[in-house]
Design the sequence.
């Protein structure tokens, strides 16, 4: 029987009613003659809520002690122990709901599924997948439900895969099980040329190449996780993004297929917004010491440039739960000319040839706010703006340079 891997996001399992609908959809997939592996996210806002509890628990017994300085932050190892429980709640409830439909199902945690990671807590990378238990259970005719977003390090510690990491679990399992595609279900019917909540004119993209999708995910598109896309590209697994409950092929039903059947083309452009990043600048002479602190604290950098005098970089804070501590370490390292500023975001135009001077010129000319930094890459043009200016700038870029634009810049390109 062909193996189908399906992943359901947090909004699709946000309450028992939704979870029961997912169980119906899984049962239909099974009835169509497939072996089914289902990866689930935590219910609704569970992960954020658990993080909030951890921050409260981390406060010192005598609140006055904390006065002024940054509040203490929970240890990342304990955060992984805590956050991994969110997905375990969903997996077991879904398994129970599938039993109620007269089908045989079994749930597994990430470590039981053979997902082996490095030891970078809170933002671990999958190194290897050994899905023997899943294969055995499929051979017994069972539906297998897997808790997304987690694994076990080679030191036998529980790890999590970075926010949005359930997508990665699903694609990595699809690759390891030899499934040729991985279905990702959420509350949107695929990938758009911008986040429709920010840009109402965003266009649905029925198909995308891996490179464009990966670039979009890396600069902040939350619809698919960047590691998941990278895994899919490396192992040639097609990703099909659909809205939960939609039946493929029915009239009016849309989906996005990310695969190597499509190659990047000039008309496929997207605008991506990423909030919540910090801007780090220092004198060039501080570069080596800055890198050492970043390495020790597992601080990820997005774009980083070293000019004749200055180093500038942005860093996404989503997967840095101990930012207060990291920032304090940076400040204590006596780095010449250090400045660290929060409250910024990244606006990116993704697509082929967006780094051409004509496009860069048009992109900068239509912005109201002055960008702090501008980076141009073969498939991406990005600028760093204050958080408050991002959404309006995204609408302008989408209108002037996005897929529906009059393409004035493309005539000259
Ligand atoms: N529950 C995790 C998160 O909220 C992982 C995921 O949803 O993919 O980031
Ligand atoms: Mg997600």
Sequence:
């Amino acid at each position: 029987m062909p193996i189908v891997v399906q992943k359901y996001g947090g909004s699709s399992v946000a309450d028992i009613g939704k979870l029961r609908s997912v169980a119906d959809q899984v049962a239909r997939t099974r009835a169509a003659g497939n072996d089914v592996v289902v990866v689930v996210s935590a219910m609704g806002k569970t992960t954020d809520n658990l993080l909030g509890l951890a921050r409260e628990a981390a406060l010192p017994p005598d609140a006055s002690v904390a006065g002024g300085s940054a509040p203490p932050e929970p240890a990342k190892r304990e955060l992984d122990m805590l956050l991994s429980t969110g997905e375990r709640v969903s997996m077991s409830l879904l398994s129970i709901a599938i039993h109620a439909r007269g089908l045989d199902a079994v749930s597994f945690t990430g470590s039981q599924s053979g997902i082996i990671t490095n030891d970078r807590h809170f933002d671990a990378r999958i190194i290897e997948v050994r899905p023997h238990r899943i294969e055995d259970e499929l051979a017994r005719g069972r539906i297998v439900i897997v808790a997304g977003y987690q694994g076990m390090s080679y030191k036998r510690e529980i790890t999590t895969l970075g926010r949005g990491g359930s997508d990665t679990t699903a694609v990595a399992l699809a690759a390891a099980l030899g499934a040729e595609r991985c279905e990702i279900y959420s509350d949107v019917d695929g990938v758009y040329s911008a986040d429709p909540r920010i840009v109402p004119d965003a266009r649905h993209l029925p198909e995308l190449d891996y490179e464009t999708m990966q670039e979009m995910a890396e600069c902040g598109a939350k619809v698919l996780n960047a590691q998941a896309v990278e895994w899919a590209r490396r192992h040639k697994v097609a990703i099909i993004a659909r809205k939960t409950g939609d039946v493929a092929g029915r009239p009016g039903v849309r989906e996005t297929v990310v695969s190597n059947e499509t190659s990047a083309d000039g008309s496929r452009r997207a605008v991506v917004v990423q909030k919540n990043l910090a801007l780090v600048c220092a004198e060039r002479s501080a570069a080596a010491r800055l890198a050492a602190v970043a390495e020790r604290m597992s601080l990820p950098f997005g774009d980083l440039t070293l000019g004749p005098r200055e180093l500038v970089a942005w860093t996404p804070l989503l997967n840095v739960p101990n930012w207060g501590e990291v920032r304090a370490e940076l400040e204590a390292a006596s780095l010449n000319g250090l400045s660290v500023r929060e409250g910024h975001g990244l606006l990116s135009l993704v697509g082929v040839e967006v780094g051409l001077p004509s496009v860069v010129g048009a992109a900068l000319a239509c912005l109201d706010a002055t960008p702090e930094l501008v980076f141009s890459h073969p498939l991406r043009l990005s600028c760093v703006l204050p958080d408050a200016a991002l959404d309006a700038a995204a609408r302008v870029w989408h209108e002037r340079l996005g897929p529906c634009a009059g393409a004035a810049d493309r005539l000259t390109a």
In short: The mean pLDDT is 94. The longest strand covers residues 270-283. The chain has two domains: 3-187, 270-412.
